[in-house]
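Field reference: "sequence" (input) and "structure" (output). Example, cytokinin dehydrogenase:
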Amino acid sequence: MAIRGGTLILMLCLIVAVNAQDIGTDNSTNYDAAAKDFGGIISVKPLAFLAPLKSDDLARIVRSAYDSDNLTVAARGNGHSTNGQAMAKGGLVIAMRSVESGHFRLVKANGSAYYADVPGGALWEDVLDWCLGQGLSPRSMTDYLALTVGGTLSNAGVGGHTFRYGPHTSNVVGLEVITGKGEQVVCSEKENMELFFGALSGLGQFGIITRARILLQPAPEYVRWIRLVYAEFDEFTQDAESLITAPEGQSFNYIEGTAVVNSDDPINGWPSVPLHPNQTFNSTLIPKSAGPMLYFLEVALHYKNNDSRTAIDATVDVLLRRLRYVDGLEFQADVSYRDFLLRVKQEEQEARVQGAWYKPHPWLNIFLSRTDIAKFDQAVFKTVLKDGIGGRLLVYPVLRHKFDDRTSLVLPEAEIFYIVSILRLGLPIPNEPSVESMIAQNKEIIKVCEDNAFDYKLYLWNYETQEEWKTHFGKKWGIFAGRKMIFDPKAILSPGQNIFTRV
Ligand code: FAD
C-alpha cells in the first residue's frame, strides 16, 4: 500500500483516537468489530478502524485516502447491515458514532416548523429521546431505532409511518456531506441538490453524511396499539390498502402487517400475536377455511395524555367497524409513545439472552407491487415459508408518491406497493434449516419474483456485480453512475456495496 507523505502519521494518530465510546453492534471498541455486522455472514478485515471525533478530521482521512494509491473508506453506522455493506477490505472503516457525537441542535424555521440538526452517526433512539425532551418527535420512524441517521438515510428508512409521511429520506431537509474527494459540502433541495438527492438512498456512494436536518412534529404521549387477525389474505390487503389511502384523521397513525404460521408454535405461530401475557389467543375462532398462514394488521392511534379515553375508544370503534378481521381476534394495549417506538428493543434484549442476536441473519427485503402481492402470498408465504422463519415476516402497503423520486432509491412502478421483510432473527423454527439453506430460500424467493415478472425491487440487498446493480437501478443507472463520477471519481467510498471498483 502506498500512502503519501504525512498521511500515515495522521492515520496512526487517528487510530489512537479510537476511544472508549461504544462502537459497533456489540459495543465492541476493537478492530475486529469492523469486520462484523448484524448479518454475521460476511467478514472482511480492514486496514484500520478509525474513530475521528470531528468531521474536519474525517474529511482529512478521506482526502488522505483520495491521495493514496488504493485506500477505500467505509462509513460504519451501527453495523446493522446484513451483507458486509459497511466493510472495507484492506481499507479504512470509520466509526460514525464517534463523529460530532452528541451535537444536537433544535432549529425553528418558516415561523412554525421545527427541525433537529443531528450528527449522521447519531442513533435514532437518541434522536427520539432528545426530541421528546422538547415535546417533539421525528414524523417517520423505522421499526427499530438502534440504527444511525446516516445509515438509514443511505438506504431509505421505512416503517409504519411511511404510508403517511414517506420514509426517513422524505423527512430530511438538509445534509452536511464529505464527498469522496474529501470536500465538506452543505446540501439541500435548493443548494447542491445533485449531492443531496444522490446521497439520500445513495448507499454511501457519493459522500459520508456527517449531519442531517430532520423535520419534527409535536410528539404524542400515548398510543392505542392494536393487532387484528385475518384468515384471508385478500381481506387483509384490502383493509390495509383502505387504511393507508384514507385521509389523515380518518385512519390510524401507524400501519404495518405481519404473516404468522397458522399453528400453536410459540415463536412462529398465533401465540406470538397477543400484545400482553394476560391476553389469550382463542384459536377456536380461526375460521375452518384458513390456510397455512394467518395475517395481522398492526396499527396505532396516537393521543395526548389529556385526551379523553372515551373519545379514543369511540375513534377506535369507528375505525375498526369497517374492517373485516376475525371477530374476537383483536388485541389492544395503551402504551407510551416512546415504549411503542422502542418495542423492538425489548425483542432485541430477549434475542440477546437467547443467543439468537449473535447468529447469522440472512434477511431479504422486497418492495413488491400490489398487483403481484396475492400471487406472492400463494407462492412464498403459503409455500416456501409456511413453517415460519424464526423471526418476523412483515407485509404492509405504502404509497409510492410519499417517496421522492429524485433520490437514489429505485421502486416498483405501482402507486401502492408492499414492503415484504423476511427478518430471520435466529429464533427456533421446526426442523431448523442451515444458514446455507436459508440463503438458498432467499434466492428461491427472488427467483419466484423474476420468473413471474413481478414488479419488484430488492431493498437493502447486496448484489455482487456491477451488471446486477445496473439492472437493479434500471433507468436511474445513468444518473447514479454520473453522480459517482462527480462526487467520488476514484470510487473510494462504501466499497462493501460492490457497485464500483476503486480507481
Ligand atoms: P451500517 O450498516 O453501518 O451502514 C449501512 C450502509 O450505509 C453502508 O454502506 C455504510 O457504508 C453506509 N453508511 C453508514 N453511515 C453512513 C453515513 N453517515 N453516511 C454515508 N453512508 C453511510 N431498515 C428500515 O428501513 N426499516 C426498519 O424498520 C429496519 N429495522 C431494522 C431492524 C434491525 C434489527 C436491523 C438489524 C436492521 C433494520 N433495518 C431497517 C435495516 C437498516 O436500516 C439498515 O441495515 C441500515 O443500513 C443500518 O443502519 P446502520 O446505521 O447500522 O448502517
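DSSP finds 14 helices and 17 strands in the chain.
Residues 38, 74-81, 85-86, 96, 120, 142-144, 147-148, 150-152, 154-159, 203-204, 208-209, 460, 494, 496-497 surround flavin-adenine dinucleotide (CB under 6 Å).
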